[in-house]
Amino acid sequence: MRIIRFIEYSLLLLAVAFCACSRPKTAFTELNSPRHFNELRAVEMLLETDPDKAADSVDGLLTAALDASFTLMDSIELCLRTVQMQYKNHWLDEESPDLAPVLAFYDSLAVLYPTDDELCYLRANAYYYKGVEYAFANDDVEAFRHYLDALGVMRQFKAWDEHPYAKRFIALAYTRLSEILYTYGLYDEAMEACGNASTHFEKDNDLAAMLRYEANIYQAEKDYDKALARFGQAEALAPLGVDAMELSLGAKLFELQQYDSAYPHLKRAFANGDRKARTDAAAKLAEICRAKGMTDEELRYTRFYVESSMRESRMTSKKMEIDYLYDEFTAPQAVESTGEKENNAALLLLVLLLIAVVGFLAFIIVRNRSRINHIENQIVDITEKHQQENAVKDREISQMAQQLGDARKRLADVTNHTFEEAWQGFNETDVVLKIKGMMEGNDIMIKNVGLFPKLKLKEVDFIDLVRMVNTNFTDCSQRFLKDFPELNSSDFRQCCLAMLGMNDAQMAVLEGISYSGVNRRTKKILSAMKTENTLEQAILTYLRNNW
Predict the structure, then answer these.
(1) DSSP H stretches of helix in 68-183
(2) Gap between the Cα atoms of 470 and 487, Å rounded
(3) Fewer CB in 10 Å around end: N or C, the chain?
(4) 428-452: per-residue pLDDT in tens?
């Protein structure tokens, strides 16, 4: 079946190639990509201005594609926009469409239309969001490689004045590069990429974000004076408070040996900073605790510092590869002559190659059709046999699960007081008190969730919240996601907020997304848990039953 699909795909590419023979300058026309000029262009604008509304538009186009077939070029672009929409709405997960076929298609098309700016921009987007998919899968090297490829394609892009989002797209790509370079300790390169991003950003908020990022890099290099200067410049453009400055403030006081004054700043930096800020703060806190005779606290911070340092050493091979890729990208580019050298001979060679491949594969399939049918029949027989064997195993597992459930119920009856103590301990943790304090006095309703941007939690707050849940309810996240495999870590984070008694409107403010996005996720979680309770009731019931 895969071979058949490959043949169909090759035939479509062949058709595109023949179409290109008559239109050597432009890949997209009203005939072969009508939705590219209408619905898909409208989706692109919504993705930059209203991602939640863009989700509805993409859903509508996906439904329309089922009712009436799209052209190949529109279908490929719709796949790209689907991944882009999921990323903008924080819905990207393992089940999102794979962009590898999209990249292969645009790369092939770029050979035929090397000067088409629209194709160039879409191809760069495909590389960028494939990099996002790799980043989601924690493959930093491949993510970095694809971000570089996206910028490499944008070097060929000519339509700067005509395209409203091109400069910001390049800035975002450089921002992703800077984040990865910073993570792997390549600070000079990270600063260079950050500077490139700043030259392409135009809004004060974006420029302030870059200044804060430069400050983080200076902090990592322990140049706290420059870090504080950058934080001050960022605060003048877009005030966010002094939270980000805590490490630099604490470090300056630490250098002056004013340990009592430095301690609260460093402690807040350890609680709320990124990994590098926490590592630096941990080293200084361990020394302060040693001087004060706080042995338990000293051991805690020392252990974190050692573990973080060991993690850095394990990243060495990836660091070398990322450094090499960035050096290759920033090396002077050889000037390549285009235009006249890309003539009809290369196009004809590509067409002949496609014809040869399709003909050879067709010959193999015709000759081996009966063998394929025989193999398919064997697969069906084997599948039926496995289903029978699995049915027996399922019955055995069901019996074991019943026994385990009975034992767990008896254990819960014996240790019910322990659950109450764990629940009380969880509600007294710093992160829970912080979140509840932030929400106190704010009357948040569905229609005004966008009025509280400063209440959006940082990523480190979510990490702390999940960690406190797992600390007080041992390995809760692991057991929860195992019990409900259709849910992901983002869904569990929303469950943690629900444990605090937050409704959908409040959770939308804390997560910094739309109310409709939170509401859809709540319904998804309740559906997976097969309950008609509220999300808070469902989570508390789950904790009690699994304590």
Answers:
(1) 72-88, 100-112, 117-136, 140-154, 166-183
(2) 17
(3) N
(4) 999 999 998 888 888 888 877 778 8
